Structure formats: C-alpha cells, structure tokens
C-alpha cells in the first residue's frame, strides 16, 4: 500500500520515455556485410549529408556533405541527396535551400496562398464604396468593409482605407452635395455662388461615379459613343476599345466637357441603355442645383440686408 502514491509518477516517467523513443529519429539501419554476408547494424547519416559508402563488419558508414543544389532533412541512408525545389508561379524564395533543408517559398507581393487551389492568387481589390479593413499578406487575402457613415472610398484598391468626408464648415464653405460611400462631400464658397454652374460640381465626382457603377464593356462602348459633344456628332471608333481605353476616353471627356455637355450626360447614359445609372446621375445634378439655388437666395438676402 505504501507504493501506491508513487504509481502515478512511475506511469508518467514510463510515458515520457515512450514518447521520447517515438519522437527520436532512428540513428541506425540494418544491412548486410557485402563480403561476409553477415547482418550488420550501420549508422545513418545526419541531415545535410548522404551515405557515400555502407558499413561493413570492419568499417563504419561513410557519410558525405550534400553538394550545392541538394539537401537531406532527416537522418538517412540514401545514396544521393535530394534536389532542391523551385518556387512556383507568382512565388518568391522565403528561405534559400541549404544542405539540411529545402527552399521555402511564399507568394510574391500582391498575392496570397489559397490552400484550396494550392496556388497564389492576387489580393482582392476593395471596390468603390468599400475600404481596406486588413491588408492582404502572403498567407491571407485582403479584407474589405463597406465604408461607415461619414466616410468614402472613390477607387478600387487593395490598400486604400475609407476616408472621412471633408467638413465644409471647417473650410468656411457651404455643403452643396452630401458625401456618400463612393464620393466626398461637395462644398461651395460664397464667392463662387454666382460664378459656378451646378454641372461644374457634378464634374468633380464623375470619375468616381463611373468607377462605382459596374458597367459592362459593351455598355461602356455605347456610353462613349453617345457622350455629348459641341457639334452633336457621336464618337467614332468605340466598338473595339477595351476597358482601360474606354476609361481613358471617359476621363478625357470629363476633363474637357462644358457645363452644358455635362448636363446632357444623364440623357446620354439613358440613350445608351444605362437607365438606372442615368437617373441616379440626374438626381445628383438636381440636388446640386436645388442646394445652389437655396444658397444663392440666402446669399442675396444677406446682401440686401447689408446694403
């Protein structure tokens, strides 16, 4: 009975010895002496080496270092080292191959490892209206989130976070269009009220507008074809333009269009079959015009009082 308190300790010790013996690498292997034909127990070669000559009854195993470009990671008795691996597509070397370990690879910048496909995939780009919550790494994809109230993102990016709407009051200006998740607030100063058309303010958010609303290449070609011009002519050569070329055409038109041409843009979108998009843009322009009229009326009242 006095031995019982020591039984758990003995069991734990026995278990530790068993685990150690299982985890420990086999340092020997059984072979046959090539001269006598008798069984022999030979030493294995340590990692970073290979078995150049087997042992005999009178000679130990002869190990040699792995030559450059090869390796062994385990105790072994192979006659040749393993060839170093090569990083795959869209991968870079994280750790170079050495005599006792193969090379380690990771996805290159802008990519992450997708286990299900066993390949590197490009980091997701957060669309307009969403910002980066967590930037992608070599092992994880980008995490996006919808911009919270008071913030926006006007571009597709794997790095840009949501930006706070600017404060018109802080800048000594008046709010002419409240910001949304995909564009900033538009502000106007009292000195500009009489000199700027509402379409001029709409121009400021047009690049973000086209970036936010998903339109097919076919639809964009029709839109570019119908973009308002001074002479009323349609733009030619749009049927073969790709997406980047179409965006360049649109941005160039936005930069050079007159206020009247911009006012006709919602109608052009509707003619191109983008009815919902055209109506949304028309609503933005109406809100700008309405706010400008109210601000102008208020400014005129102030001027009358001051006189």
Automatic annotation (TrEMBL):
TNFR-Cys repeats lie at residues 65-105, 106-144. Disulfide bonds join 66-81, 84-97, 87-105, 126-144. Keywords: Apoptosis, Disulfide bond, Glycoprotein, Receptor, Repeat, Secreted, Signal. Residues 1-16 form the signal peptide. Gene3D superfamilies: Tumor Necrosis Factor Receptor, subunit A, domain 2 (2.10.50.10). GO terms for biological process: apoptotic process. It is found in: Secreted. This is Tumor necrosis factor receptor superfamily member 6B isoform X1. It comes from Lates calcarifer (Barramundi).
